[in-house]
């Protein structure tokens, strides 16, 4: 990549010139903007990857990093660097589109507290719109929460505490840990009865990255669904009776509250946790204070290898060491506690954005665990369940294969070190066709949570199947929090080069019979006394006494026979493996043909607008009143699919 060095030098020079112009009194646009770049070839992709690694030096914030040719990249550009970045891209003949021309204005429009908007309304209108905004659905939960809006961390914690007070037999608030700024990381355990610690467990968390507010809201929605529908919906009742749910909506409360503190784009889109701030002069002699760690690079799985940075100012700073942060340690310690260890069958972590369903492993491309077939089977069903709600499309695969390699993630750690069966990371709305990025409109919060819940229920159903097979036993936690010594699950973390689309499970070969244990000989056997003396027999020809050499020869023969059985078993395994490979290839071809046919069919029957659910909620008769328009843009939600 030596060829990139001259261009970065040019980029630095252009930036310096623009700063000199600003210092000389030349006016500069003061608005943050977001640009979308689609690299057309490997050279342009290489340029973007190089800039991505040093983005903090150029006041750039990559909302979506470079992943491949013809894959879009979203970058928020600071006003101090807007002109120089524009000149640099033009010098490389790289084109871009401005998707958000004023980020702060978009923040206020999408996320400004409703109270400041409602204050200007007529009281009657304010009451009407307030009901429509905050009561977009009917919940049986006696602890009420405004799911049509974004809220503070304190509001979320108070709501969980109210749930515990109202439903003491099935809900218990717990403290995961304490942050750098002294905030308690609160979660809630849901199960009936909540005191039963022998049941299998589903773990769900959100808010590991501070700016991903929609993920937090979705985790809260899951809590409400379990509480409100218990005793009403047989499926939910079965979940809560059979399993325990540990849900932590905000793993990173310090970062989340900081991102809410002001509408300035640099604050709103803060990604890391909060920690000690270290100030230093940058290459332009500016005083810069940096701090915080990307928590999803701080877990002990291939820590610091790929997709992270050792630079404190980087958005993907991995930290000084694995589990250097109180938030990541809190997750580790809870997972390895006697209460949870060996019982967690699903680990789901929620993020935004890009609409992706990701399974391990993510530290390098084409790397998968042994039970990849099970992970993919359940994951693909989850993707289909999400799509069945509003037609929302999700990509599926490992993060390394559909995004970029990144080591030290909580999901990879949960699979490899905590030995959890079903591990998934979900990137929620919006998708690639929308340009708002992390600024998900309030009116899409509930539809996003609803469709995601449909996918999560598929995972829970898989865990229910496991729970029926596992006995209720207590598994001791490992002696060390960093190195588990007791493995409940038989799943092992391995690296393979097989395709991510497989249709059988690769298991260990059939066990060969072990060599027979050598017999125990005594040089002086004890005499056996009988009540009657043995009869006198006629003399027999003397037999040669078995010597130690004869014993070794006999043992060698037995060992060789065992080896032959082992070789035969191995050959049988390889034969079956070749047969499975042939079946997999045939199934792959059939699946591709079916998927292609299904895709062609679905292109004519899908929701082309993300607002369909919101429109129908506000005007239930809109499908008939505006049938021509709704048939075109909301075919799935309006039920027109079957008429195609």
Automatic annotation (TrEMBL):
Residues 1-18 form the signal peptide. Residues 605-641 form the ShKT domain. Its cofactor is Zn(2+). One of its GO terms (cellular component) is extracellular space. One of its GO terms (biological process) is proteolysis. Belongs to the peptidase M14 family. This is Zinc carboxypeptidase A 1. It comes from Steinernema hermaphroditum. The lineage of its organism: Eukaryota, Metazoa, Ecdysozoa, Nematoda, Chromadorea.
């Amino acid at each position: 990549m030596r060829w990139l060095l001259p261009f970065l030098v040019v980029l630095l020079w252009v930036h310096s010139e623009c700063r000199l112009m600003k210092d000389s009194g030349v006016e500069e646009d003061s608005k943050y903007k977001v640009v979308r770049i689609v690299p057309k070839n490997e050279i342009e992709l290489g340029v973007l990857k190089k800039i991505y690694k040093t983005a903090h030096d150029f006041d750039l914030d990559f909302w979506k990093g470079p992943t491949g040719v013809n894959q879009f990249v979203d970058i928020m550009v600071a006003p101090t660097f807007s002109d120089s970045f524009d000149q640099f891209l033009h010098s490389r003949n790289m084109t871009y589109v401005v998707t958000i021309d004023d980020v702060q204005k978009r923040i206020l429009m999408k996320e400004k507290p409703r109270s400041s908007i409602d204050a200007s309304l007529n009281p009657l209108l304010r009451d009407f719109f307030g009901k429509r905004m905050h009561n977009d659905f009917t919940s049986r939960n006696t602890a009420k929460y405004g799911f049509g809006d974004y809220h503070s961390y304190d509001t979320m914690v108070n709501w969980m505490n109210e749930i515990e007070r109202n439903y003491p037999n099935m809900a218990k608030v717990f403290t995961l840990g304490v942050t750098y700024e002294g905030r308690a990381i609160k979660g809630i355990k849901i199960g009936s009865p909540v005191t039963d610690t022998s049941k299998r467990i589903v773990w769900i968390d959100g808010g590991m990255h501070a700016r991903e507010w929609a993920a937090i809201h979705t985790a809260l929605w899951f809590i409400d669904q379990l509480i409100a529908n218990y005793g009403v919906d047989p499926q939910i009742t079965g979940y809560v009776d059979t399993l325990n749910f540990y849900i932590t909506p905000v793993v990173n409360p310090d970062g989340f509250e900081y991102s809410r503190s002001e509408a300035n784009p640099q604050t709103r889109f803060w990604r890391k946790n909060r920690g000690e701030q270290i100030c230093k002069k940058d290459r332009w002699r500016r005083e810069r204070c940096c701090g915080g760690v990307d928590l999803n690079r701080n877990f002990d799985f291939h820590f610091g290898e790929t997709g992270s940075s050792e630079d404190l100012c980087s958005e993907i700073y991995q930290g000084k060491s694995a589990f250097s942060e109180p938030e990541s340690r809190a997750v580790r310690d809870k997972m390895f506690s006697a209460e949870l260890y060996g019982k967690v069958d699903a680990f789901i972590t929620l993020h935004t954005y890009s609409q992706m369903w990701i399974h391990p492993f993510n530290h390098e491309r084409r790397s998968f665990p042994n039970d990849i077939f099970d992970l993919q089977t359940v994951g693909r069903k989850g993707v289909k369940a999400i799509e069945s709600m509003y037609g929302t499309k999700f990509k599926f695969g490992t993060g390394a294969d559909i995004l970029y390699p990144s080591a030290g993630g909580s999901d990879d750690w949960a699979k490899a070190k905590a030995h959890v069966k079903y591990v998934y990371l979900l990137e929620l709305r919006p998708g690639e066709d929308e340009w708002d990025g992390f600024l998900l409109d309030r009116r899409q919060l509930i539809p996003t949570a609803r469709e995601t819940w449909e996918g999560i229920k598929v995972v829970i159903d898989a865990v229910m199947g496991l729970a029926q097979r596992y006995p209720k036993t207590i598994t001791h936690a490992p002696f060390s929090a960093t190195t588990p010594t007791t493995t409940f699950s038989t799943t092992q973390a391995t690296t393979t080069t097989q395709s991510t689309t497989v249709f059988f499970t690769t298991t260990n070969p059939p066990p060969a019979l072990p060599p027979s244990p050598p017999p125990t000989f005594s040089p002086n056997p004890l005499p056996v006394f009988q009540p009657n003396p043995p009869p006198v027999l006629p003399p027999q020809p003397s037999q040669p006494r078995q010597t130690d050499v004869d014993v070794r020869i006999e043992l060698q023969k037995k060992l060789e026979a065992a080896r032959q059985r082992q070789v035969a078993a191995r050959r049988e395994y390889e034969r079956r493996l070749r047969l499975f490979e042939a079946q997999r290839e045939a199934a792959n071809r059939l699946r591709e043909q079916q998927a292609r046919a299904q895709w062609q069919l679905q292109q004519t029957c899908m929701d082309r607008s993300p607002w369909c659910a919101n429109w129908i909620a506000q005007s239930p008769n809109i499908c008939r009143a505006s049938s021509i328009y709704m048939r075109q843009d909301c075919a799935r939600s309006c039920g027109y699919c079957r008429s195609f």
